[in-house]
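Z., the sequence and structure:
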Amino acid sequence: MSDTAKEDAMTSAARGADVASLHDHVAGPGASGQSNGLEATRTSNAQETLPRPDTGLSQDLDRVSLVQALIDAEAATARVIDLTERLVDARRQMGELRGELEQLRIEYEQYRAGQERLRSSKAFRLAERLWTIRNALGI
């Protein structure tokens, strides 16, 4: 299995565990068929100290809040993934453009060197003098 596939499997397992623990927390112990004495003690202590006038409505509100939080987390994760992909694409494009710019600089220097060789040649100097004489004579 590739590293990416292992990471995806681990992430999925962690999400499942997180959702299960959040469900147990919101729905209360024993809702998933599993409970231990510690959770029961915590719950009974919390129920003794904090009276709940309408537990059904409160639990529904907690469930809705949990679902909304999970949706928000998933949307944030999708945005992060999208932005990361865009960043990677932008960096790749920057590398390509830098390479293209460097190639254009090399071509420009070659062109300038060719122009300089042409201007320094005897034939060009002679043609330039003839052009100056022709313009002076008005021909």
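Confidence is low (pLDDT under 50) at residues 25-42. DSSP finds four helices and no strands in the chain.

Let me know what you think.
H.
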